[in-house]
Amino acid sequence: MAGYDDLLPPCRGPSMMSKLAALLLALSVWLPAQAQPLRVCTNEWPPYTLLEDGQVRGIDADLLTLALDNLGIAHEMTLEPWRRCLRKMQDGQLDILLDAFYNEERARQMRFPSEPMAENAMVLFYATARPHKVDSVAELTGLRVGTEPGYAYGDASFAEGTHFIREDAPSLEANFGKLLLGRVDLVITDRAVGLYTARLLGMQEAIDYNRKPLYSDRVYAAFSRKPDVAALVPRFEAELKRIKAGPDYARILQRYHQPVAESTAGQTETSAD
Known about the structure:
Mean pLDDT: 87
Number of helices: 12
Low-confidence stretches: 1-12, 26-34, 263-273
Oligomer: single chain
Order of helices and strands: HHEEEHEHEHEEEHEHEHEEHHHH
Strand content: 15-25%
């Protein structure tokens, strides 16, 4: 009589158990990787990004969080010096760089959605004791303009001009301090950021700005080009557009005392929560 072993088919290749073990091992590696929250880095740039009760908040931080939450995508956000955020993205330690200005070099390293986080009016601030009325880059001849390291200033005539001096300081607060001390003549920054920071520092009476923007720019949530992260961009940009067209975005703007466009303001009362 044939034994039990004789009834089994001949073994040609890995056994079913070894295949199952290999599958389980692959799943054990894949699942935790998928469950890891996206790593987001930005610097303090109020009212767009700021620290509130130990949490990263602000217009763009709240907007990013809402969009990712709506898509079911977990994330962790940190506030760090901008150069450190850039270095982390370049070293592959980051998934999203929040509030990045676009330039071609960055576009080779990161994937930029079609929808920006915010439109930015870049203006020149001056000390009220030493006003400099400037309406264009051409009028900056001989002046010292406070800038911040690692920023991609989107106007080529400003970024590359040689008829004035761009002088870095570690932060906008430091730049405003230099402005009051007369160590720079002007400071360039986003209008909302400058006004918010001046008020926060109690400098709103000592600092004013040229009403005509030097130029306008946009900031983005720039995604890593790692395939699994870059693949999220189409869904993210669609959700971002949807939110910005509705009442949730208006409420975020109102929370940080920013003007609300008429297209969204009228929806705040009629939306269903």
